[in-house]
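Notes from hallway chat w/ T.B., transcribed later so I don't forget. T.B. wanted the structure written out for a chain they're using in a teaching module, and asked if we could keep both sequence and structure tokens in one place. Agreed to drop them here.
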Amino acid sequence: MRTVIVGQGAIGLLCYHRFSIANFGKNNHSVSLWPSTPCEVSHYSFKELNSKTKSFPLSMASRKELASAQLIVICVKSYQVKKALQSIHALIADNAVIILTHNGLGTFEEISHLLKTTQCLLTLLLTQGARKVADYHIEHTGMGNSDLGLIFGQLTSTKQAQTVDYFQQGLQQIYWQEDIKQAQWQKLAINCVINPLTALKNMPNGDINQHVYQEKVRQVIREVVQAAAKEEVTLSESSLLKLIKSVAHNTENNISSMRADIIASRRTEIDYINGYVHRLGGKHQLATPNNTQLWLDIKALEDGFNV
């Protein structure tokens, strides 16, 4: 399957590496990278889990390769999705499958007008960890089960099976979700708690399970459940609280993506996480004081540096 990975960050290079290795030597299975900024890089460095760093050749996508790609995997932050797709949508084939990999919700509303009715848009809820050490140098930090599902267009059962198999060979532990919206909201709920609190308190994920944070966690999740209901998605508050405890425990020493962004003085995805819940509150006349405050607190940190 001819594939173009858009974005050269940690997740972009992780996907590029995995698909390249899985498809090495196979006919009609080319994999190339479309970076956000043109460059002359010919190799990238990749460190596997518990392994040494090695250098691998890098194939940059041409406009012709982008136009002939059957699969476009957009691996950029949520606030970069619209700009990334705007820059290439005129080149993408009418029957291409486009996949988004970012955190949060709200990007589909921003890009829906750029999609052709014959194209498909999928979302990949990737739970594998990767860390950018330097430009074109990343470290794979963790495995995990990931979900894939359709959010726009029509996908035949044959093409669905081919796509899942392709991702399974490359990234492994990939599961197709018929109701991907439910899975998106579950991940949003986790991110609404772990990301902003760890960023604001500058603490590892596991500290979320301390008693002092439990009331705040419950208040945030209650608002998420209420907002989801307005969007016709049913979530269980008790189930989410158990899930968050489990995720925090299993990743207790990890640095959340939002905490990493704040440490590095980068813009975060808060507008598409707690900020998304805040906007839904306005849409549905629903009070979301806890999510709104977390959104404002992170925005205040962002205002302290140029993003």
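Follow-up for T.B.: Residues 218 and 241 are 7 Å apart (CA to CA). Might be a good example for the class.
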